[in-house]
Amino acid sequence: MAVLLWPLLSLLLSVPVLVGLYRRDGWLPLATVFAVYASILYAAGLVCFTLYPLPTGDSGPGITYGMPPQWVPLNSIGDIMEGGLKAALQVLFNVVLFVPLGFIARTLLKLKFPLALALSFSATCLIETAQLTGLFGVYPFAFRTFDVDDILWNTLGGVVGWGLGHLALRLTRREGAVMPPVTHRPGLVRRAVALWTDAMIIDVCAVVPRLMVVIGLKMLMGDAFDDNLLVRVNNIVWVTCYGAAFVVVEVVVPWLRDGSTPAGMFYRMSCETRKRTGPARAAFYALRAAALLIVLRYPLLAAPVLAAFYLVARQMPYDFIPAISAATGEGGQAALGPEGAEATEDIPAAATLQ
Questions:
Q1: The domain containing residue 71 runs over which residues?
Q2: What's the number of domains the chain is made of?
Q3: Residue 249 above 60 pLDDT?
Q4: 172-205 pLDDT, tens per residue?
Q5: How far apart are CA 66 and CA 138, in angstroms?
C-alpha cells in the first residue's frame, strides 16, 4: 500500500518540500532530493504499518467489540519476561520504526534535539490516538491496540535516530557545506533530474487551470455540456495550458535567468553551456525546446536515444549551436563558468550534482 501511494504523495509533496529546503539552504544537492523522496516513502510506510489492514465486513476486531487499550506504562517489560524473544522483538520493532524519523529530523529538517523529541512524541501520539479512536471515528471501535508503551518506545526510537543523524553529520561534515556556484557544465544525471522536476512543475501548472476551466464550463452550461464537447474542450484546454507552462518553464524563465529553469535554480545548474547572443541564442532555445518536447511526449523512446547521444558526444544536440564570444563577438567554443567567464576548474564532486 505504501509503495502504491508513494508516486501520488511524491507528486503532491515533493515540490513544496524541495522549494522549502532550497529557500532554507540556497541549494539542493542530489542526496537531499533522494532523501526527500525516501522520506515520503517512509511516511507512507509508517502510516500503513500502524493503521493497515483496515477492517471490512460486519464483524470482527474493530467492528463488533473493538481492541482494548493498554494503559499501564512499561507493561512490555513484564511481557518480555513472560513471552521472551517474541515480546522483546516487538519492543525492538517499535524502537526501530521511529529511528528513521529521528534521523530525518536531524539531517534533512535540521531540527535541534528538543524539537526532534517533540516531533517523535507528537507523531507517535497521533498514531496511537488513531488506533484508539478507530481512525478518528471512521470505525465504531478501535481495530488496532492502543499501547501506552508504544509511545515510549517510538519516542526512544526517534531519539536514537536523531543521535545517529547527528553522528553522521559530524563524520561527513556536511552540515557546514558551502553552497556551490551555478554550473554551466551539468552532467547527465543532473540534467535528467532537473528535467524530471521541471516536467512535474509543468504538469501541475497545466492540470490546475484545465480543471478550473472544465469544471466552470460544466457548472455554467449544465446538461448542454455533453460528453463529446467535454472531451474536445478538455483536449484544447490541456494543450493550451501545457504549451504555455512548457514555454514559461523551459524558455522564458531560463532566458531571463542565465539558462536556469525553475529546477535548474534548485540544482544550481544552467542549460547554457556556451555564451550565445541574438539569433544563436534563439536557435539554441528553439532546438532545445523541440528536443525536450519529444522526450516528454515519447520518454521511453526518446530519452534513451538522447542519453546515448550525450554519453558519446558529452553534449546534447542543441549544445553544438555555435557560441558567441562576449569579448570579440566572434564564434567560439568557450564553456561558461559560474559568472559567465571561461570555466577553468571543476566544482568539487562532494558539493555538487554530477
A1: 2-172
A2: 2
A3: yes
A4: 766 555 667 888 888 888 888 888 888 888 887 7
A5: 13
